[in-house]
Amino acid sequence: MERGRALMEQGGAGIWSTVGVAFDLTGAIALASLAIWLWPRRAGFGHAGALVPAAVFVTAGWCLTVVSASASGAGGFLPMVAESARNLIWLAVVYRLFASDGRHASVAPIRPVIVALAFVEVLHLGVGYSLSRAALNNDVMRLMFDFNVMFRLLVTVGGLVLVHNLYAGAPREARPALRWPATGLAVLWAFDLNLYTVAYLGGHWPVEIAAFRGLATLVMTGCFALAAAKNRDFLRLRPSRAVTFQTFSLLVIGFYLVAMVAVAQWLSYADGNFARLIELVFLTLASAVALVVLPSRRVRGWLKVMLAKHFFQHRYDYREEWLRFTRTIGSRGPDALPLGERVVQSVADVFESPAGLLLTPGEQGDLTLAARWNWPEVEVPAAAFPLQAQAFFERTGYIADLDDTRAGMALPDADVDLPAWLTDDARAWALIPLIHYERLVGMAVLARPQMVRKFDWEDFDLLRVIGQQVASYLAENASQQALAESSRFEDFHRRIAFVMHDIKNLASQFSLLARNAELHADKPEFRADMLVTLRNSSEKLNALIARLSRYGNGAVDKLEQVPAGDVAASVMERFRANPQVVLAQTQDVTVTGNRHSLEQVLVHLVQNGIDASSPESPVFLSLTVEGLTARFEVLDSGCGMSADFVRNRLFKPFVSTKSGGFGIGAFEARELVRAMRGRLEVESREGLGSRFLVYVPIAAATDIFQNITSQDQKVA
């Protein structure tokens, strides 16, 4: 069995030896051809012009030496000499490249470092030659192997440090000439670093890895060929961001697996079953960590930020960003999100933000919640953003980093205070104004992404462009809705005109009948009953005509002083038979309004609350005084409404969720309240219920509200 295993190991080593010979021989041919091609072009390398072709030729000789040693099956001293000569001449090339811009004199440690590395190579050769002439046992040979590997590691690490300083410390104008030579040397020595590290950890020469040393020389050949090309300044690797991210992810996973195997190999050096158990435990835990950490959004976000920062001139692939934006904002179909949510998503995708809100101007000018995307838990008040704070953002287009605000950094305009609900919610991260023709049409609030970073100029530029685009979509959508509403009103008015004409004729006939009956009826009792019936019918028809005349303009007959408590009592009397309706609170206050219209509004709101609630859920009506207004509040715990429905459908005429509904009840209620110089506000959450607030001026403040209305009309 042991003999069979030894034969299998010899067969595997033979295969890898053949692969190594193929790569090394190919590398030797390529290097020799490159040396001949570089000689007439050596002036492009400055002070290192003559040394570079020589170094390439020496490296080709080293490859041939490795091929010869592999073919003969004996290591010998000659491959060691060839590799030391290769390292020494490349160290000389690095020194001459430093001399090209005078840094060999200005950077003091360069010369001592190169001399020290050359001394290590010479010492290595001396020790190796001495040991090759002596007869040593296996333990001493093992020690000498480790000693040889350590010498090689010192030189490769030193060479990589020099290459890094050569490129990183060069002036900006000199870097294009050093880019490709530095890359080639870094590939050569980085491969050797990994090779000798694995050899030191494993205690033996890794033939599987060593077989690919020729591949590293081929990469170096290509780099130096590019360095001598005439168009080298335009030769840059420009992979797409998706390919770069995927490739880098694979490299990270590969390095992780190599490190895991290396540590497991190191643990296996200990003897005994306990050491084997430790090795298995480590592999299990390392695999579990990889499965949990590597796929996480935070790690992927960090990788994308690092790649964009160090590999690309611009942070964003603008073509991809634009295509994604147009796909999101222009999506159609039954499964497409409403426009408000698409607006938030299109802005949030720029930073991989997981959620966001859209605020748009309400009836009183304050920004209100128009849409929420993946953010159901945030509590947004009815007036989400006050009117006085909008002028600064409308004028400047300032994009606010809420983390800076929480840290105490004030906005450029010291008079602007952000709402408390924004700054108190740690998940709120950025506030982006949406401006269309120098007018603020909304604001987008983004939630904190997995990988948080500070905004830079490129972020601001992209957000301003996207903000203008989504603002134009919102403005266009508002114009289309207004046009459609106007068209529906026109059709409604045309239809209702015929209805009103017919009802007027009927009312005239009833009135004429009543007058004739008064003159010609024989029986007083019949005449009295007929008169009462006809008068009641006539009054109802005239009231219906007056009510139909008010549709579309919210007009009221007249404004007078009305006891608000009596209005609330009348509404409760209307729903006396329904125990669901509860009068929670009332105050003695007189308002300026129209009693019939106010009762009509409250009855409509209470009835809607009853319709939206289960039979056992109460609907509360309350009356309080708030400043210069009386506030009627209707509160239910029914099914509630979404922010999109409240914003875009609740007060739109001819839009109803009730079977057979006309769809103008809420619209008429709001218009009637406005006609009494009041306002109607709504707060609602799906599954929690709704709260309607009717504000009507108190009688003592009538003159104040009348003056305000007059000033607004003059400004308009």
From TrEMBL:
Highest taxon, organism lineage: Bacteria
GO molecular function, one term: protein histidine kinase activity
EC number: 2.7.13.3
Residues annotated as domain Histidine kinase: 498-700
Membrane-spanning residues: 15-39, 51-71, 77-98, 110-129, 149-168, 180-203, 209-228, 248-268, 274-294
Matches recorded under Pfam families: GAF (PF01590), HATPase_c (PF02518)
Keywords: Kinase, Membrane, Phosphoprotein, Transferase, Transmembrane, Transmembrane helix
Matches recorded under SMART domains: HATPase_c
Enzymatic reactions: ATP + protein L-histidine = ADP + protein N-phospho-L-histidine
Protein name: histidine kinase
Record organism: Novosphingobium beihaiensis
